[in-house]
């Protein structure tokens, strides 16, 4: 009987994890679509709108949703400069039921060349859905 109960619990947890991964991928896909439509505000909805949001890039770390938005707007002031973004999600690892680690590659194709690199994210589940709370992009 214990084996049956354990099997049911493991099956339920596996199903839950797959559902959570689909939800996380949906957030990233919406970001990709918003970026490619030139909608920076829409793209930023994938991030936690908080001063505690941490972004780490090649110039170092900084905090805050608003700061992140301002930097993106300076670097990519219009749709043409934003180019076409693609993601390749390599791994989503559930830390617990409300946190996940995401590893992926990004590629930005622009008229004057391309930029690409890797990212690691920590995403957290809130009432309104999954949000990126830490983004380390190179």
Automatic annotation (TrEMBL):
- As given in the record, the signal peptide range reads 1-19
Q: Does the keyword Signal apply?
A: yes
InterPro entries noted in UniProt: DUF4440, NTF2-like_dom_sf
Keyword Signal included in the entry's annotation:
yes
Q: Which domain of life is it from?
A: Bacteria
Question: One Pfam match, by short name?
Answer: DUF4440
What region holds the DUF4440 domain?
25-132
Parts forming coiled coils: none
Q: What does the UniProt keyword field contain?
A: Signal
Q: What is this protein called?
A: DUF4440 domain-containing protein
């Amino acid at each position: 009987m214990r084996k049956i109960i354990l099997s049911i619990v493991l099956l339920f947890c596996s199903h839950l994890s797959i559902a959570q991964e689909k939800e996380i991928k949906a957030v990233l896909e919406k970001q990709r679509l918003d970026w490619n439509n030139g909608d920076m505000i829409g793209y930023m909805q994938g991030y936690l709108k908080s001063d505690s949001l941490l972004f780490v890039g090649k110039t170092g770390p900084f905090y805050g949703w608003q700061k992140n938005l301002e930097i993106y707007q300076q670097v990519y002031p219009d749709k043409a400069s934003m180019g076409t973004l693609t993601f390749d999600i390599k791994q989503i690892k559930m830390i617990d039921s409300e946190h996940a680690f995401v590893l992926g590659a990004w590629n930005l194709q622009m008229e004057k060349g391309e930029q690409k690199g890797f990212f690691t994210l920590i995403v957290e589940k809130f009432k309104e859905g999954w949000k990126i709370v830490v983004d380390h992009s190179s």
